Amino acid sequence: MSTEVRVPTLGESVSEATVATWFKKPGDAVAVDEMLCELETDKVTVEVPSPVAGTLSEIVANEGDTVGVDALLAQVSEGDAPEKAEPEAPKEDGPKEQQEATNVSGEPEGEPAEKGEAKGDTEDAPSAKKLMAENDLKEGDVKGTGKDGRVMKEDVLKALNAPKKAETSKPAARGPVSSDDADREERVKMTRLRQTIARRLKEAQNTAAMLTTYNEVDMTAVMELRNEYKALFEKKHGVKLGFMSFFTKACVHALKEVPDVNAEIDGDHVVYKNYVHMGVAVGTPSGLVVPVIRNADSMGFAEIEKSIAEMGVKARDGKLGMADMQGGSFTISNGGVYGSLMSSPILNPPQSGILGMHKIQERPMAINGKVEIRPMMYLALSYDHRIVDGKGAVTFLVRVKEALEDPRRLLMDL
């Protein structure tokens, strides 16, 4: 018996994937739940296991093919491969059925021929024909919605509007390259994840009224507190005490005072969220992903650190699921781990705020009239000015700064 291997459910709002890698080839023996192939969606990588033990008899979707949900990927024959030739017998009937279904002219009878004949006997509306001629449109450029596929004036107007939208999203053509340079270039197709990153970042710039405000924070208090308790913290909780838990708690504290930064626009409504699902941007070899720490506002330092560590491992191993990256209400991006001193983070739609952390660098600062060397970090808050006013954005960033420079504020809710 032959068992079909189909594309699994890919998650909310994901309807197709690209076949990235086949781990097996036709004729290979496979075990139950052994990985057959890897699918790449615009958000995560999905591994497809074998539903039965047997032999991979046929690969239907090759590497690089785009497949939809529930599309056929392969056939697995249970048991020995020679005994499984019988299920393919029905395919022999296909040509006979096609021969029986041919008409006098030798062409198969079916929907395409009927559509063609119907279109040939149908006269388009005169106003539509005139409008098509004026705009150099051919018959195939317009889909008719009238009786028997007749093209109406409304169809032409719709077709005229469609190309304009396509042109705005079409990337600019690359300039000419000399033959010497062309020989030293390599053209590689963008992965789905990289295409999605590019599209979403550009959408954020085109849709949101994005603005960035900056401040700096003296990390002395946080670093001293961390150094004092990191050994005890790790011994009790089994996880290292990092800076991300301090920043997460500080942001949660500030979001309570400035809820606009934790909101999003839905049509002509603003949705305020009485929870904080904190997105933490993580760089991986395949691109930037943003796993979400759900209900971060109800977590302690240890829970936050454990969640971040778990998500970081899953991100590096490509094991993040759809649920791990959905529903975020605010995002923290730490460019400081790569040495960034200053940057303007781009919003993660539909969120209205993202905090950019940067490199901790010792700088001379004026403290009580004296120059002291302090570990300083620049902070950047990018926000959607359609929801968040400048006052709210500055207030948020100041509250984060105050909480980090005096962590006792977090305990007393100040």
TrEMBL record:
One of its GO terms (molecular function) is dihydrolipoyllysine-residue succinyltransferase activity. Keywords: Acyltransferase, Lipoyl, Transferase, Tricarboxylic acid cycle. Its cofactor is (R)-lipoate. Residues 81-99, 112-122, 131-157 have a biased composition (Basic and acidic residues). Residues 2-77 form the Lipoyl-binding domain. Pathway: Amino-acid degradation; L-lysine degradation via saccharopine pathway; glutaryl-CoA from L-lysine: step 6/6. Residues 123-160 form the Peripheral subunit-binding (PSBD) domain. Binds 1 lipoyl cofactor covalently. GO terms for biological process: L-lysine catabolic process to acetyl-CoA via saccharopine; tricarboxylic acid cycle. E2 component of the 2-oxoglutarate dehydrogenase (OGDH) complex which catalyzes the second step in the conversion of 2-oxoglutarate to succinyl-CoA and CO(2). Belongs to the 2-oxoacid dehydrogenase family. PANTHER family: DIHYDROLIPOYLLYSINE-RESIDUE SUCCINYLTRANSFERASE COMPONENT OF 2-OXOGLUTARATE DEHYDROGENASE COMPLEX, MITOCHONDRIAL (PTHR43416:SF5), DIHYDROLIPOYLLYSINE-RESIDUE SUCCINYLTRANSFERASE COMPONENT OF 2-OXOGLUTARATE DEHYDROGENASE COMPLEX, MITOCHONDRIAL-RELATED (PTHR43416). Forms a 24-polypeptide structural core with octahedral symmetry. Part of the 2-oxoglutarate dehydrogenase (OGDH) complex composed of E1 (2-oxoglutarate dehydrogenase), E2 (dihydrolipoamide succinyltransferase) and E3 (dihydrolipoamide dehydrogenase); the complex contains multiple copies of the three enzymatic components (E1, E2 and E3). This is Dihydrolipoyllysine-residue succinyltransferase component of 2-oxoglutarate dehydrogenase complex. It comes from Limimaricola cinnabarinus.
